[in-house]
Specification:
The structure is a single chain. This protein is an alpha+beta fold. The chain folds into 4 domains: 182 residues, 2-Layer Sandwich (Alpha-Beta Plaits), CATH 3.30.70.330; 283 residues, Deoxyribonuclease I, Chain A, CATH 3.60.10; 126 residues, no CATH class; 289 residues, no CATH class. It is globular, with a radius of gyration of 37 Å. InterPro entries: DNA/RNA_pol_sf, DUF4283, Endo/exonu/phosph_ase_sf, Endo/exonuclease/phosphatase, Retrotransposon-Effector_Assoc, RT_dom. GO terms for molecular function: catalytic activity. Pfam families: DUF4283 (PF14111), Exo_endo_phos (PF03372), RVT_1 (PF00078).
Length: 1170
């Protein structure tokens, strides 16, 4: 029976009428204003004080800020303030039309806490902050009062109260507040208060207090944490009429360059001529900055800058303001006029797919670039500035060049490689400069070069080109975007085919195809604008272009007018501004790598003398990862300056034809193979006669041969295997899709899928291990990241050249290896020194206790050996045998018994074969572009078996060191931290710059090659003095005296020699033995300072502090008198004689405080430091 039908419930209809829809609701009137009558026209609006104060509470938690003389964009201020003050309760950041910023906080207390921490700087710019009040006027031209934090030094303690601080602060301005430490009297060096200063009154530097309790007045010194500029004429803050009058050009001169003013000055001597160097990459407030420059390109990659001789009355180069390139689409001709001296007519180049009428570069849509093909020669617009850059290919003739620079590098340039060069020529209109550039290209055998800042007019371009290169050469320029030629690129058309891609006033990009090679090379020549805002377009271009050229070798070279770090400049403005981070951010985002270089580090010189000299590295050569994958040995040369204030740049591209013998290294990915453990087990079943160490090491050698074959069969050329497996799997999927019912196709597809996934995992493991990335533990398919990290690491650690003692540059791999081996043989195995004759008992007066001796001689257990092994990180660099800790841990159930037996054999028989104690020395650069062996830090990579033995000794030795080592040392010791010594040193050096304090002396001592030169005899004699058990001394002696070294040079092992002194950086035992050796200096100082003629540093006398050690660096303290300093020097000399540790005078410094000039000179002569 069917259920009765029910009517569906009708859907509620919208019952609102048209009248309801237009009826005024509360929500529509919540912002309605009061209906007041209109005010009379022409009358002033009168507002009562009560109305102004009625709503002031909601604004009392707001502070107002502005930048004097500068307007920072709102988004930048909002970003910085939100990042720094968000946790302080910042709710909102708004801006007014005239440049004021309003910062609203959730409470007034949080706002005061931010003001208390001031003064603040945003992006290197001072921001004036104060709390809003009803009488505040938003007019920068009428800021007559400002809050400023000051420090009162010498304020009597009775005045450290609210009334006293207010009274003292009123001497400077209107008192506002003090910080918490001043209020609670927890920092007594100075009282910190905030006062409102008046622009009409001068700054108060000090004032006196008349005290009825003292006969003489008390002087209080005032330090301003920030002094805003004030105008003595207008009595307002933010500008100075005097400075404006001195620098402001007259209205008739605005828009004219220096050259025009100089021209007028010749006829009108009353016109001022600017004398300061023009601004380039520094902050606009900087007075000394580099001049604009021009790069040039050759087949050996080089960059050059040429300049016309400066007028005696003018600076070396005028500042030219270049407007940013237009982003509007421009028509692109079908042909690119490429001119040569003999054929000025346009030449049609092959069609370039990038050259579309509306070129769009994918990425940020707001930064879309529209590029046009430049009329290289036919543009009749006048030209104002340019630079030079070049590209060339080395031929056999370059190998016979006569100059040192050419001779050095000619043998390393393949004849079929396109090696560009560049030079900022700083003008190229004079015939002298043209001849110099011509000779430079011939001398370096360049086939492609770029010139920057040439300043050539378009009508004169063909004539200049005729003087630079033969008729078979062609050239390109960016005159389509500028009135003068900024970038000029020349190339030998008989050897290279150069295809234009895009350009702007700041760059010119082209693609080079060599006649003898099908591998294209993209070149981008750079001449960055002088102002940071104009260079933003350049950074955006590089970031977006890097995405399009991932698979194409790409070189970016030229004058960027920017530095990467503060170390890239000497002299001038030392401040670091926020815009200077743009270059490094661009390099990081575009994943470009700086080419290793030789020659000059600072590529630009301002041409001044003495303290006015400024040097910067403004010229750079960068490459993408594909470039270094194609030419692993690519490097560059920055030549000495000639006709320009910039260095010429050469790039050498060469294939790595040298086949080195790659040493064996265990790959972690092998352990995941199914037949790996069976391979290890088969080697371990071999019967070998001999002692346990010999058996163990022999089985490792047998396994090494099997693992090499294993690698050849399964994991060699891992990236190619992955690609092939992927193709095979894709093909199997297509076959399966065509015949889904085939069991053979299904099985084959699953098998190939498993094989592909395993190879992907192997590839990721391979690059992770090679890249040495330790912090990344999780993630899926990080192969690309690991590969990039490996490439960066290889480029950074690659040794391209070394300079010998005679100044000759060595680039041959074998000669560099011989030079490295010879250096370390002289360092680690010098002529044996006579035995130690001195009695050092007084240096180590504390013998160890009997209980400690008993603990050190406890029987060795299997668990102790296993714990020592498993405490070694898996991916630590292996020793010469190639096995890392991961291998031993993975195969512990197979090899553990033999490993324990070998370890026990050492402790029972005091025997350690050299194959176990061999060390692979890795050369880690200490500086950028190292050129000598002293620029490398030798890190010893020891075999795992030896590391395990060393760790067992350390575990027993370090328990007694705390009783032996004095409090002056805190590095490496359990329960101590080196930061304690750092904080104590800062406390002792605090206020040492003041001239009115007590006389003090501090010595910062650097020990030359400390770990590598310490005497074994001194260490062993000291261990005997503290009554260390003889068996422990024997174990330590065997560990340090049987070490053998082999040098790792660019992945290849060279030499094998025994050392006679030194401790290995990388041996677990070395830090503790070195700390023990340094305690000998403490004993010498302790005995010597008992002399009554020695005077302590005034803060050190109570605790008898004479020195603080920071591993191989130390600080010495005493009173500033010749007797005390002489006692310290005699202790250092005696310690050097005993321990073999010598002072590095070049890196050691003398600090004297509160002494006159004569005493300062006398002590400096006595100690011999700077």
């Amino acid at each position: 029976m069917m259920p009765p039908k029910t009517k569906p419930t009708p859907k509620a209809a919208d019952q609102t009428s048209w009248a309801d829809r237009v009826r005024i609701s509360d929500s529509s009137t919540r912002f309605t204003l009061e209906n007041l009558a209109r005010q009379p026209i022409g009358h002033r609006l009168k507002v009562s004080e009560a109305m102004l104060l009625e709503n002031s509470d909601q604004w009392s938690r707001c502070m107002v800020g502005f930048f004097p003389g500068y307007k920072m964009p709102y988004h930048a201020v909002n970003k910085i303030a939100s990042r720094v003050w968000k946790q302080c309760g910042l709710e909102l950041v708004t801006a007014t039309a005239n440049g004021f910023m309003i910062f609203r906080f959730n409470t007034e207390e949080n706002m005061h806490s931010v003001l208390e921490k001031g003064p603040w700087m945003f992006g290197g710019k001072n921001i004036i902050l104060q709390q809003w009040h009803p009488r505040f006027r938003f007019d920068k031209n009428k800021i007559s009062t400002l809050p400023v934090w000051i420090r009162l030094h010498g304020l009597p303690f009775p005045l450290w109260s609210k009334q006293g601080l207010s009274l003292a602060a009123s001497m400077i301005g209107r008192p506002l507040s003090c910080d918490e430490q001043t209020y609670n009297c927890t920092r007594l060096e100075y009282a910190r208060v905030c006062v409102e200063i008046d622009a009409a009154l001068p700054y108060v530097q000090n004032f006196e207090i008349d005290s009825p309790l003292l006969a003489e007045p008390i002087t209080v010194t005032v330090d301003y944490e920030w002094k805003p500029s004030r105008c003595e004429k207008c009595h307002v803050f933010g500008h100075s009429c005097l400075s404006i009058a001195a620098t402001q050009p007259t209205s008739m001169d605005k828009g004219k360059g220096i050259a025009e003013l100089a021209s007028q000055a010749n006829t009108n001597p009353s016109l001022p001529i600017p004398q300061d160097p023009p601004l380039t990459s520094a902050d606009p407030s900087s007075s000394n900055v580099p001049l604009p420059t021009i790069p040039c390109i050759t087949t050996h990659i080089a960059i050059t800058t040429t300049t016309d001789p400066p007028s005696p009355s003018l600076p070396s180069s005028p500042t030219t303001h270049c407007p940013p390139p237009s982003l509007d689409p421009q028509p692109i001709p079908n042909t690119i006029p490429i001119s040569s001296p003999s054929n000025p007519s346009p030449i049609t180049l092959p069609a370039v797919p990038h050259a579309q009428p509306d070129l769009h570069i994918p990425g940020n849509e707001a930064d879309t670039f529209h590029q046009a093909m430049p009329h290289v020669v036919l543009d009749n617009a006048p030209c104002q500035e340019s630079k030079m850059a070049s590209l060339s290919t080395t031929s056999e003739s370059s190998q016979t060049a006569t100059t040192a620079t050419t001779e050095t590098f000619s043998n390393f340039i393949a004849n079929d490689d396109a090696s560009p060069s560049s030079w900022n020529t700083w003008g190229l209109n004079s015939l002298q400069k043209q001849n110099t550039v011509h000779d430079w290209t011939q001398k370096n055998n360049l086939d492609i070069f770029g010139l920057l800042e040439t300043k050539i007019e378009v009508t004169n371009l063909a004539a200049v080109q005729a003087n630079l290169a033969p008729s078979c050469w062609h050239f390109l320029s960016n005159t389509h975007h500028t009135s003068h030629c900024r970038i000029l690129v020349d190339w030998n058309s008989q050897k290279h085919n150069l295809i234009y891609e895009d350009s702007s006033p700041q760059w010119l990009s082209c693609k080079v195809i060599t006649t003898s090679s099908t591998q294209p090379l993209k070149l981008t020549f750079i001449y960055g604008h002088n102002t940071p805002s104009e260079r933003t377009l350049l950074w955006n271009y590089l970031c977006q272009t890097s995405i399009q050229n991932i698979d194409t070798p790409w070189i970016v070279m030229g004058d960027f007018n920017a530095i990467l770090t503060a170390a890239d400049r000497v002299g001038g403005d030392t401040n670091w501004y926020h815009h200077q981070d743009d270059f490094s951010n661009c390099i990081r985002q575009s994943e470009l790598i700086t080419l290793p270089y030789t020659g000059l580090r600072f590529t630009w010189h301002n041409g001044q003398h003495g303290d006015h000299t400024i040097q910067k590295k403004l010229d750079w050569i960068l490459g993408n990862q594909c470039l270094f994958s194609t030419w692993p040995r690519a490097h560059s040369v920055f030549q000495p300056r000639n006709i320009s204030d910039h260095s010429a740049m050469l790039i050498h591209l060469q294939t790595d034809s040298y086949r080195r013998q790659i040493p064996f290294k265990f790959l972690n990915l092998w352990a995941d193979r199914e037949d790996f453990l069976s391979t290890v087990s088969s080697s371990w079943q071999e019967q070998i006669s001999g002692n346990p160490i010999y058996q163990f090491t022999s089985k490792l050698r047998l396994l090494k041969l099997k693992l090499k074959n294993f690698h050849q069969q399964h994991t060699s050329n891992i990236t190619s295997r992955v690609s092939q497996a992927q193709s095979a799997w894709y093909a199997a999927q297509i076959i399966l899709d065509a015949d889904p019912t085939s069991s053979v196709a299904r099985t084959n597809e699953r098998s190939l899928a498993h094989q592909y996934m395993q190879l992907c995992k192997d590839e990721e493991s391979f690059f992770q291990q090679r890249s040495k990335i330790q912090w990344l533990q999780l993630g899926d398919r990080n192969t690309k990241f690991f590969h990039k990290s490996l490439l960066h690491r290889q480029v950074r650690n690659k040794i391209h050249h070394l300079t010998d003692n005679a100044g000759n540059i060595i680039q041959d791999q074998q000669k560099m290896s011989q030079m490295a081996v010879s250096f370390f043989e002289q360092l680690l195995a010098p002529t044996p020194q006579p035995p130690l004759q001195d009695d050092i008992t007084l240096l180590y007066p504390k013998p160890i206790s009997d209980a400690s001796k008993t603990a050190m001689l406890l029987p060795l257990t299997n668990d102790e050996i296993k714990v020592a092994l498993f405490s070694i990180p898996d991916n630590k660099a292996p020793g010469p045998d190639g096995y890392n800790a991961f291998f031993f841990k993975k195969c512990w159930h197979i090899i553990g018994t033999d490993f324990i037996a070998a370890t026990r054999y050492f402790f029972t028989n005091n025997s350690l074969p050299r194959c176990v104690n061999a060390t692979r020395v890795a050369l880690v650069p200490k500086v950028e572009n190292p050129s000598s062996m002293n620029d490398f830090r030798p890190i010893s990579c020891c075999n795992i078996l030896y590391k395990c033995i060393s760790k067992i000794i350390v575990s027993r030795l370090k328990s007694v060191l705390n009783d032996i080592i004095g409090p002056a040392q805190s590095a490496f010791l359990p329960g101590r931290s080196i930061s304690d010594a750092i904080l104590l040193t800062q406390e002792l050096m605090h206020n040492s710059h003041l001239s009115n304090g007590p006389s003090n002396c501090a010595l910062k001592i650097d020990l030359r090659k400390a770990f590598d030169t310490v005497s074994w005899e001194f260490i062993l004699a000291g261990l005997t003095t503290i009554a260390l058990p003889q068996c422990m001394i024997n174990w330590i002696k065997i560990c340090i005296s049987t070490a053998h070294y082999t040098i790792n040079m660019n992945g290849e092992l060279h030499g094998f020699f025994k050392s006679t002194r030194g401790l290995r950086q990388g041996d677990p035992l070395s830090p503790y033995l070195f700390v023990f050796a340094m305690e000998g200096l403490g004993g010498l100082l302790r005995n010597a300072t008992q002399n009554t003629t020695f005077k302590y540093h005034w803060q050190c006398k109570q605790n008898s502090i004479t020195h603080l050690c920071f591993a191989d660096d130390l600080m010495l303290f005493c009173n500033a008198d010749t007797t005390s300093v002489g006692i310290l020097k005699s202790c250092l000399d005696k310690f050097s004689q005993l321990s073999g540790l010598n002072i590095n005078h070049a890196k050691s410094f003398l600090y004297l405080f509160g002494v006159n000039r004569d005493l300062h000179h006398e002590i400096q002569q006595q100690i011999g430091f700077q």
